[in-house]
Amino acid sequence: MGTYPLLRVENVKKYFPVGRALFGKSKQYVKAVDDVNFSLDVGGSLGIVGESGSGKTTLAKVILRLFEPTSGKVYLDNIDLFSLSNKEVRRLRPKMQMIFQDPMASLNPRKKIKHIIGQVFKIHTDISDVEISERVIDLLEKVGLTPPELFLDRYPHELSGGQRQRVCIARAIALNPKLLIADEPVSALDVSVRGQIVKLLLEIYEKYKNEIAYIVISHDIALIKSICKDALVMYLGKVVEKSEIGKIIEEPLHPYSQMLISSIPVPDPEIARNRKRIPISGEIPSLINPPKGCYFHPRCPYVMDRCREKMPPLIEVDNRLVSCYLYSE
Ligand code: SF4
């Protein structure tokens, strides 16, 4: 049997219909995710970065089969997720978990913490109540909610935002997932606790990296840098650059990546002075009516005539992928 990556995303598209075109029968579509390809091995950590509206969260939901794709395939452990019945997906669900942006919204406000985490074991295992209690205590310790006895009988509203996100992380890792997707895991939290949650995510990654792969979604490329090895930059549903995160930070190829990097503060004034900067300008265009050619051309300082005509293909440049005519013949 050959080897294969833990996760393969092949030509995934997700279009949402938005009504009918004026005087025409054809529907208009929002191309939230448009022909995305990548793979991820066990131990891999991939950041998906882009402004809101770039399709990051939709892509994550397609990967987890929370959304059906318009076309394309997603394989987890060589299993074609879209060929599975709903029942089979439910059985596989513990293996692919998501940590959501807003911990309050993703926890049942009427349940105590011990029930919120314990429910995962009730649904997916047949272990005894005593064993469930032990596992819950163990998980609370793993995510730094100590002493666990202090938290078992509390309700989500009795916890701080950071503590709630720790509960969400405990629930997500409860059944040893193979794929863990964190969607803007710290953006709803106070600045003072963001660092602690990033540290926790890194500790969990270090502890389980021989078993899991991580995807972290964020508009904040500095956050991606602190958690992930690789990054995929998305703009209006398309991948515009993919590479090791260090290379993207040091030498971003795509002008959009350069724009995102420009927003990261640099402590060293000399490096900051010499850094090529593209100030963030303009707004992300409408997905219903994206610009012709390269979607980034209305905001790009290097725009050329051909950029307005045809979308540049995603090509390989120095073992990196980029979609920009600055790098093609
Ligand atoms: Fe800018 Fe043209 Fe490259 Fe698009 S293809 S990013 S418009 S230079």
Query: Topology as H/E string?
Result: EEEHEEHEHHHHHEHEHEEHHHEE
In total, the number of strands is 12
Strand order of the largest sheet: 6-7-8-3-9-10-12-11
**Helix residue percentage:** 25-40%
- The shape, in one word, is globular
Number of domains: 1
From the 3D structure, determine the CATH topology.
Answer: Rossmann fold
CATH architecture: 3-Layer(aba) Sandwich
Going by CATH, the homologous superfamily would be: P-loop containing nucleotide triphosphate hydrolases
Structural class: alpha/beta
Low-confidence stretches: none
Query: Span between N and C termini?
Result: 40 Å
Account of the 3D structure:
There is one protein chain. With 329 residues, this protein is an alpha/beta fold. It starts with 6 loop residues before the first strand and ends in a 7-residue tail after the last strand. The protein has helices spanning 56-63, 86-92, 103-106, 113-124, 129-142, 149-152, 161-173, 191-208, 221-227, 245-250, 255-262, 269-274, and strands spanning 7-20, 27-40, 45-49, 71-76, 79-80, 96-99, 179-183, 213-218, 230-235, 238-244, 315-317, 320-322. The protein has twelve helices and twelve strands. The model has no long low-confidence stretch (mean pLDDT 90). The protein is globular. The chain has one domain: 3-Layer(aba) Sandwich (Rossmann fold). The strands form two sheets. Strands 6-7-8-3-9-10-12-11 form an eight-stranded mixed β-sheet, sandwiched between helices. Helices cover 33% and strands 23% of the residues. Iron/sulfur cluster (SF4) is lined by residues 254-255, 294, 296-297, 300, 302-304, 307, 312, 324-326.
